[in-house]
Amino acid sequence: MIEVQNISKSFDTNHVLKNISFTIEKGKVNFIIGVSGSGKSVLTKCIVGLMEVDEGEVIFDGRNFTHMNRMERKSVRQDMGMLFQGSALFDSLSVEENVMFPLRMFSNMTAGEMKNRVNLCLERVNLEGAGPLYPSEISGGMQKRTGIARAIAMNPKYLFCDEPNSGLDPQTSIVIDNLIREITYEYDITTAVISHDMNSVMEIGDNINFLFEGHLLWQGDRNDILTAETRELNDFVFASQFMKDIRANLQAERKR
User: Fold this and answer.
1) Residue 242's pLDDT is what?
2) For the residues 164-188, what does the mean pLDDT come to?
3) What is the pLDDT of residues 182-219, one digit of tens each?
4) Going by DSSP bridges, is the β-strand pair 14-24/2-11 parallel, antiparallel, or unpaired?
5) Cα dist. 137→83, 93, 142, 172, 221 in Å?
6) Looking at domain 1-79+158-231, does it have CATH number 3.40.50.300?
7) How far apart are CA 219 and CA 33, in angstroms?
8) Are 33 and 189 in contact (CB under 8 A)?
9) Domain boundaries in the chain?
10) 3-state SS of the chain?
11) Quick count: other Cβ atoms within 10 Å of Cβ 18?
């Protein structure tokens, strides 16, 4: 569990985050959603320590990350897995070498142990046999799955996914969504997904946190979100025809 307590962050006179508090729950897929410029990325960077907060605290399973020094934070970061928006694979490394990278950096495994771990992770994301290939030789969906394999290589307690379906077709997006959900449940990970993809929210979102202009305006689950009365949230959620159709079907069922 990650507790975000009264976080504020400003850049000069631009108040990006304004007294935000919420909990990222263990074993669940927790979404942080909002329009571009709402503060999602800054919030995430504050949570993982890439930016320092002006006020507030971030607590990882009782460990106050905000007040730790660099060496103390390193031990917490070793428990984090990151899936970046563009996969962020190293072009000069093979799929196997990309997944092995955090093991080489942070683990004390032998070469054989690292090889076995990489194979296990690739198998988990259905990329058996893809190890020798390079990022340029695989599809966008395979790159995302390679990113997931790398993110879970160190058996993380916490998994952060930044726009995991960016640039993917709808069918591949469903595959990635299902992988994130399955891995979260299977390994009991504390997962946070930063997204504006309502299809993903409705498919796998256990807890949803909606940011608007630096404020946390709404919290709930994917069932609550369809009947929420927060105007800004409704404008965001029902911007697509897909979500409008879901709402129309829900309203029709209620009238029966």
Assistant:
1) 53
2) 90
3) 999 999 999 999 998 888 999 999 999 999 999 999 99
4) antiparallel
5) 20, 12, 10, 17, 38
6) yes
7) 10
8) no
9) 1-79+158-231, 88-155
10) CEEEEEEEEEECCEEEEEEEEEEECCCCEEEEECCCCCCHHHHHHHHHCCCCCCEEEEEECCEEHHHCCHHHHHHHHCCEEEECCCCCCCCCCCHHHHHHHHHHHHCCCCHHHHHHHHHHHHHHCCCCCCCCCCHHHCCHHHHHHHHHHHHHCCCCCEEEEECCCCCCCHHHHHHHHHHHHHHHHHHCCEEEEEECCHHHHHHHCCEEEEEECCEEEEEECCCHHHCCCCHHHHHHHCCCHHHHHHHHHHHHHHHC
11) 17
Q: List 207's β-bridge partners, or say none.
A: 30
Query: Residue 119 corresponds to which tokens in the numbers above?
Result: 């194979």
How is residue 123 written in tokens?
A: 């198998």
**C-alpha angle 138-191-117 in degrees, rounded to nearest 5:** 50
Q: Name, of 5-19, 166-180, 215-229, the range with top average pLDDT.
A: 5-19
Interval 75-111: pLDDT, tens: 898 899 988 876 788 999 999 999 999 999 888 899 9
- Those residues whose C-beta lies under 8 Å from the C-beta of residue 87, and which sit 6 or more positions away, are 135, 140, 143, 144, 146, 147
